[in-house]
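By convention, each integer encodes one residue's backbone shape. The lines below illustrate.
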Amino acid sequence: MQKCIFCKSETGIFTTREHILPESLGGGNWAILPDGLLCDKCQNHFGSSIEQQALADYPFTFFRVFLGIPTKKGKAPWFNSWEGTIRASVRTGSFDYEPSELFENVMQRGHKSQIRLLAHPLKPHMVCRFLLKMGLEVIAADNPQDIFNKKFDKARLFALTGEKSDEWWYLQHEDISAANSYIRGGMGLEEWGDNIKLQVVMIDAGAEVFHLKLLYIDLLTPLEVRIKPPPKETLSEPEYRLFTV
């Protein structure tokens, strides 16, 4: 039986394949959601309205560009900053830089010689909705019956529509030394496979949290609103950063 895990439609159209982890983040055939769990309407909505904005935001932009992961269409990823355009190169760890007119003039006058990039999400609510979507799809892939439990309804609603009555959050851990190692030295297929993970972990009282690992980045978000975030004073920034939406 076909039933969409987000809108719960049983009569929609189910024709497209869904990568739980997008191909532009390294997802392959191992990350495909089983057929009949995501209708075409919801998939198109997520792809155009949520996933696109999340992938164009921090930390995914840096991850894609500095590791040279091509887009779904095979093009080099890029992002804009107020100092110019940063575009992935053919070699991991290097990139092309097209300075903005203002920054180019400042450099030519010798007033500035470094590029500074904003390492902060501009749309954390979109990043959070994107993470919730992946977390719910991981549960659906593991247990197609459990995903329709009412305890996931608030996460389902926020991921799909952005509507919420409670505060959501996600925790980001970034290992800078590991990032430098990957960017400068590259990696083999085995190392890549060992360090790209999607999993749902159980914590106290059966509450479930989604964990996405992308080499040097760990992102965690609760799939139930009853799970409270860790106190900010216990987190060591900038390695650990808490975002509430």
About this structure: The beta strands are 78-81, 84-88, 95-99, 169-174, 196-202, 208-214, 217-222, 240-244. The longest strand covers residues 196-202.
